[in-house]
Records
---
Amino acid sequence: MNFDLQELSGTFSVTDVVAAMALSFILSMVIGYTYRYTHRNVSYSQSYVQTLVIVGMVAALIMLVVGSNLARAFSLVGALSVVRFRNAVKETRDVGFIFLTMAIGMACGARFHTLAVAGAVVVCVVILVMFKFNWFALNVQRQVVKVQVPPGEDYGPAIADVLIKYTTEYELVSTETIRGGALTEVLYTVRMKKGTEPGDLVAALQERTSGQRVTVLTGYDTTDL
């Protein structure tokens, strides 16, 4: 019995299809576990990791469908262009994992199995090494200070006095009105002095701003909000 599938793009066997889909699944799972192990932030999403596996397998399937047929490739591009993704990717690193699973899936679908395995292993090892040795880390922790003040009065000098006392450096980021203009919110990035607690800074700022709300976000550079 002949198990070859005759297509416009060429001839491939059932074994080729099973091998491509199975290998893309296995390698996408490896990438997913690598992502889970190296994830640092608080917004871990199980759905995102499952999507990585799905994307890898779908990419392999697309490559099997397209084969070497240019007309079919352009048709798929037109069909996929109507897809709209409304969920924003919270971390740029997540985009890299999406491209990685797509590349591995495409390699599996094109039946470059050795390339797919080697590429997945090498990139995952690089990711693990960067995670283990904390490459490119910036050992300067900054905080975000949000101060709400009533409009119509200049609280800038009073806030600056407190920031000079409790921080080594500060920078004004933005000023905007909130609650329909009832309050003005001022946003600073600061580096707090050693031994200074965020609560001390909050209490000092509230004394100068008539008890208005003050928020200090610590570790914002490693935590996605």
---
Amino acid sequence: MDMENNASNSARTTATRRLLAAATVVVLAALGTVPAAAAGHAEPGRQASAHHTSTPAARHDERGGLLALTPVARLGRADVADFLGTAGMDTGTVRHGVRAYRLTYRTVTPQGAPTTATGLFVLPEGGAHRLDLVSDTHGTMVNRDDAPSVGEDFGRYAPYLQASAGRAVAAPDYLGLGKGPGFHPYMDTGSAVTASLDMLRASRTAAQRLGRPLTGDVYASGFSQGGQVAMALGKALGGGADRSFTLRALAPVSGPYDIEHAEAPGLFDGSINDTSGIFYMTYFLTTQNRIHPLWKDPSEAFRKPYADIVESLFDTNHTEEEIFMSLPATLKELVTDDYYQKLQHPTGALLAAYRAQDGNCAWKPDVPVRLYSSSGDTDVPIANARSCAADLARRGVKAPVIDQGSTTHNETYLKSGPQIVRWFDAEGARR
């Protein structure tokens, strides 16, 4: 989840993102990107090739098999600092320039069928030869071109921040975003985890090919939707999903860890603003319906004329602005009276959809965990982080909730990101 607190804030955020994207394009035009034919070895000032390097050795049935490695950006240290500083981030941890690549790799659909996905892989310029890896999972995105491996704004803040501190970064686009095929199964935690785990595997291959092998140590973070994914990925790694990777620390930000008891009730108790709440719930319902049906016809949940358009709005080609303009101001205007009551008192398939995404804090990590959030967040209320901390505490794990105060949703990450880098630095130094 990655929205501002009201429509006017969203408009300002969009304008800021466009300015940052434009600024980044200027930076990249000045610096040049890395030609694919010499991935990791080109001189600054050269334009990126339109072609990518392929990996013929990747088997078609191999999850995480690297199919393509495409250079997408190269920024010097000062340019990384300018990019992050323009967004209002503390740039004190920026120690290196970065090189970024789009990885195309093998993974699976929610049903387990073979598919492909893309993600952003970022290396520091300089630093250690063998690198620890940060898994960074992004927040809610509706347009496929906003995903980290394609978009040049908010989706790259965390990857550039972490890589410039001296670690490699694997930032999956998830299924159906970036250059991946099909629809994005929004808030389907299972497929987000498989896509993220397979991105780690593809990153291991890419790092070896680029001459910067990985140590196998993984630090997991993520924002909003990605905060939930980070917890679930940590659970998978902790359970031995791939023993070539060792989880070292978990630092998710503003994740919707408890849809049933914190996020969904926030639509009705005032803790979530109407603009974001309507957006998130419509996105959740329409995409979840594609995985396990919630209705036979959208008119069972949505009023006219919205029943005729909601499914097509979330096709990964519409923008946030287009969706906002197409939805009403309140939830009562959007859904039928019966479904409004169902959202307040979920049962059946809807409750099952909530619970299928919850429970990712119900395990016992053997690594340090910090939960970043803010009491001012009206997109993903801090009640989610407190619920997660309580789940962990019941299993003997003390995970502090770092409250960033009155900051908004996106600002919570901008403030938390540099703190997470410093914490990862400290945890790494203890090894």
